[in-house]
């Protein structure tokens, strides 16, 4: 009996999960998203083209792959159909390659309005929402009010939609917020109809059946571990469980059926939106990381905040996820730096901590260890043995501190620019 392997981000998202899943998928028949929604942006670069996937799993361009949108995902039909049309222009019809869980919840046009109204009302306390309606949709899910993909097939679908919309109108009346959903609602209904050509499935049964028949399955996480609703930098987090435990609830597999957990991290750190970021750089070095790394959100286009690698947070994410192997992204972005720093501990109120605390705001001061940079271009390197010694030392230090081997090192954006160990 096969176990489901997991690949997920260990930082604040944007670690490069799309490229990694695209590289890993030849070894897997099935790729399944287990949480999040169109706030995700997984970038793939190949054949001179760049694609950003928001809801569709990142194995969609691989021939003979099956891609499952699991029950833990929330879906905006408009965004999903736009994405599908863009994929089909490149890859032809994907009707037989994309399966959608009946239990996945739908993001309504009014969910988007509630998201925008709530964020606007927070003023200076904004959490940095992508305004895609994710939070309000998960609120309706836990409040037992939500509409699900399987409801599309019900003759009562329109009545259920109207009832939930009216409930949202009541909530929106509490805000000083102007809105008009007319155009988007029309697009939404058209997209719902277009989705009917895809198979709506009991994904928990399908996934477990694949595993029982020794079909290799890869679970693809969205966002990052430090944005987890329970264990991230709350309240500046997403609305789902982004850690490996979310695979069990987001796909319907038991904990003892989880196999390898592959954790992705950048050789430095980035974050989009508000919230704690102990190693953030506000100087020319931070600006240089942003420029060289093209650090702008794949979904929002917002400039990402940049800083040195936070080993305290990384070790925490490794522990919480049960990571068995690490994948380092964007090592090439550090090619030109004389010195590279890593935060190995925090100082809070005069006390030094080497673990991730509940209090993780502005009072946290990082304590750094410095490493010499490698000062050369590594983008053409394809064997670990050919890396400069300074990079090998950097990787070895991370392995010792986390207790996990670094199995893959990315040295450029293309799917071919990668070193496997």
General description of the model:
It is a single chain. The protein is α/β, with parallel strands linked by helices. The chain is built from eleven helices and 20 strands. It has a ten-stranded mixed β-sheet with strand order 9-7-5-2-10-1-11-15-19-20, with helices on both faces. Strands 14, 16, 17 and 18 form a four-stranded mixed β-sheet that branches. Strand 19 (406-410) and strand 20 form a beta hairpin. Helix 3 (109-121) packs across helix 4 and helix 3 runs parallel beside helix 5 (157-172). The radius of gyration is 21 Å and the shape is globular. The two termini are 27 Å apart.
List the helices and strands and how they pair.
Elements: E1 4-9, H1 17-24, E2 30-33, E3 42-46, E4 49-53, E5 66-69, E6 74-75, H2 77-91, E7 98-101, E8 105-106, H3 109-121, H4 134-142, H5 157-172, H6 182-195, E9 199-201, H7 203-212, E10 217-220, H8 245-251, E11 258-266, E12 269-271, H9 284-293, E13 305-307, E14 309-310, H10 311-321, E15 325-329, E16 339-348, E17 351-353, E18 365-372, H11 389-402, E19 406-410, E20 418-420
Parallel strand pairs: 1-10, 1-11, 2-5, 2-10, 5-7, 6-8, 7-9, 11-15, 14-16, 15-19
Antiparallel strand pairs: 3-4, 12-13, 16-17, 16-18, 19-20
Provide the low-confidence segments as ranges. none
Compute the separation of the termini in Å: 27 Å
Give the DSSP E fraction (strand runs of 2 or more residues): 15-25%
Query: Main β-sheet: number of strands, strand sense, barrel status?
Result: 10 strands, mixed
* Assembly level: single chain
Helix count, per DSSP? Answer: 11
Give the strand order of the largest sheet, numbering strands 1, 2, ... along the chain.
9-7-5-2-10-1-11-15-19-20
CA-based shape: globular
């Amino acid at each position: 009996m096969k176990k489901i392997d997991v690949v997920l981000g260990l930082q604040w998202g944007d670690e490069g999960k799309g490229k990694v899943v695209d590289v890993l998928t030849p070894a897997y028949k099935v790729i399944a998203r287990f949480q999040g929604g169109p706030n995700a942006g997984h970038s793939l670069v190949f054949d001179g083209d760049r694609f950003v996937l928001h809801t569709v799993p990142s194995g969609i361009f691989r021939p003979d792959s099956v891609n499952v949108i699991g029950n833990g995902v929330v879906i905006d039909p408009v965004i999903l159909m736009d994405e599908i049309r863009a994929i089909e222009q490149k890859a032809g019809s994907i009707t037989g390659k994309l399966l959608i869980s009946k239990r996945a919840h739908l993001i309504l046009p009014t969910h988007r309005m509630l998201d925008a109204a709530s964020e606007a009302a927070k003023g200076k306390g904004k959490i940095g929402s992508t305004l895609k309606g994710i939070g309000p949709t998960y609120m309706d899910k836990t409040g037992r009010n939500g509409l699900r993909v399987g409801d599309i097939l019900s003759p009562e679908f329109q009545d259920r939609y109207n009832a939930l919309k009216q409930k949202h109108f009541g909530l929106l009346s509490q805000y000083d917020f102007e809105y008009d959903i007319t155009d988007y609602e029309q697009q939404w209904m058209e997209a719902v109809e277009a989705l009917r050509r895809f198979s709506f499935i009991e994904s928990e049964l399908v996934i477990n059946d694949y595993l029982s028949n020794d079909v290799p399955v890869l679970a693809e996480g969205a966002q990052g571990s430090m944005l987890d609703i329970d264990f991230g930098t709350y309240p500046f987090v997403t609305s789902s469980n982004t850690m490996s435990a979310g695979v069990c609830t987001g796909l319907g597999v038991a904990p003892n059926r989880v196999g390898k957990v592959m954790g992705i991290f950048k050789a430095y750190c980035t974050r989009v939106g508000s919230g704690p970021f102990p190693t953030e750089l506000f100087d020319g070095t931070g600006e240089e990381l942003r420029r060289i790394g093209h650090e702008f959100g794949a979904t929002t286009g917002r400039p990402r905040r940049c800083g040195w690698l936070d080993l305290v947070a990384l070790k925490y994410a490794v522990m919480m996820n049960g990571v068995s192997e690490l994948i380092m992204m964007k090592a090439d972005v550090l090619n030109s730096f004389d010195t590279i720093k890593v935060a190995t501990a925090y100082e809070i109120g005069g006390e030094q901590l080497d673990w991730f605390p509940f209090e993780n705001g502005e009072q946290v001061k990082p304590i750094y260890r410095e490493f010499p940079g490698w000062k050369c271009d590594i983008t053409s390197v394809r064997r670990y043995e050919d890396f400069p010694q300074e990079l090998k030392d950097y990787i070895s230090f991370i392995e010792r501190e986390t207790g996990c081997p670094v199995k893959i090192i990315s040295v450029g954006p293309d799917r071919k620019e990668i070193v496997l160990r």
